[in-house]
Amino acid sequence: MRPVRKGGRQARAARQPETDIKAFDPAWRQWRRPYKPIEQLSADEVEAIHEASLKVLRDTGIRVLSPEACDHYRAAGMTVTDGDVVTFDPDALLELVALAPSEVTLYARGANRDVTVGGNRVGVCTTGGTPNFSDLEGGRRPGSLAALDDFCRLAQSFDVIHLIGPFVEAQDVPPNLRHLAMTRSVMTLTDKVPFVFFRGTEAVADAFEIIRIANGLTPEAFIERPVCYSVANSNSPLQLDHLMCRGIVDAAKAGQMMVLTPFTLAGAMAPVTLAGALVLQNAEALAGLALSQIVQPGAPVCYGSFTSNVDMKTGSPAFGTPEYSKAAFASGQLARRYRLPLRSSGVTASNAPDAQAAYEMQMALWGALMGGTNMLLHGAGWLEGGLTASAEKFIMDVEMLQMFAELFKPLEVSEASLGVEAIADVGHGGHFFGTQHTLDRYKTAFYAPLLSDWSNFENWRDSGAVGATERAHRIYKETLARYEPPAMDPARLEEIDSFIAKRTEEGGADIEK
Length: 513
Hints:
The chain has a seven-stranded mixed sheet. A four-stranded mixed sheet has the order 3-4-2-11. The protein contains 20 helices and 20 strands. Residues 1-17 have low confidence and may be disordered. The protein has a single domain, classed as TIM Barrel (Alpha-Beta Barrel), CATH 3.20.20.480. The chain is an alpha/beta fold. The N and C termini lie far apart (70 Å).
């Protein structure tokens, strides 16, 4: 048997805490992508998809299940037939889309937490909207407010997370009051940019009010300052439902960011070819984005991409596939064609936080981040095709995100970093461990992993042979144990609780309107 080494990694591990959660890092709090986005399509192919999308919108149109939205489209010069099918004048449509800003800053409650969306900037969000929660201790179970709270504490603890998603549904809170409890949790347990569900005008207005109070803004200032974001999903193929239309209108009037995201699964709700699925995605995205600009020219929006494929044997959605990455690359080109920020996602179809979850997530991240995304939704915690938020998967994803954050940092090339003097000092056949050049830099020279175990086999075995998923569970628990909530003005918290008490007494929100 090979002897256990006494120095090297073992010695370094002894000098470090078990889990190294890196503190404030400006480069991690707002990413700048230093690389040109990968382009899947030629310029002619981008134009072919663009023209095909306009043809779909002109000749087939979008079914819009909101009389109010139909009125908005009609007033902007579009045609409404059969009561709810909107067909579009391509020139008028493109003029509307051109009104949207190409870059938007979302202002957070906490200092140094603002997120600029657009250009080469990247903001990372947690997973969201999952009905279930899982960890190694309790397994998979329905989402609860306590699970949401714990995920908020996790998200607050890592600088690579910039925006907060809705994580899990708090199914132990009645639907008419759920938005109040969930928004309070996000605004008190984190100081990052929050998410608002489009669950009817009353629920949206309640969430906006809690966020406004937490940020200390007047109603007038709230409209002028984007401090949250929402997602409107078109019902592919070619349909916008009432609640999504209401949300698009409400967000535009409130001056808050809306991400229009078609859910186009090639072979199911979209053509089986990626080119056809992208045509459908693009048509639906342009139609929804135009509505926001009709309501409020210049309203902050984001072009959402979520095109993937299905397993043609079962019909189940597939994520983290080569097709998903190709679609992400192409979606970036389409968003840039319209000078719009891009939303992509980090996703997997795996049912457990295992090797499949890791490699599908990594594939999705490469597609999204190297495709030029500006908002990475579902960046941490997504499992089971979006049906479960996993605590261990969250930690695994944070490790990958931190590695991407380091990858995005510029490489220093300077007289000092070139190390010519160090090379001369060591000469032939020596080593660099003890040089002054190394001693001056060794603490920060390389990325220090959160989750990975770099010990040799014998040390790993003697420490219990703990795998990555079990280590992720330990880090999840350690992070919760040392969490500290961000400060909030007690007067603002009192005002939030008074507002929630009032709305609760009034019966909460009608989430069907």
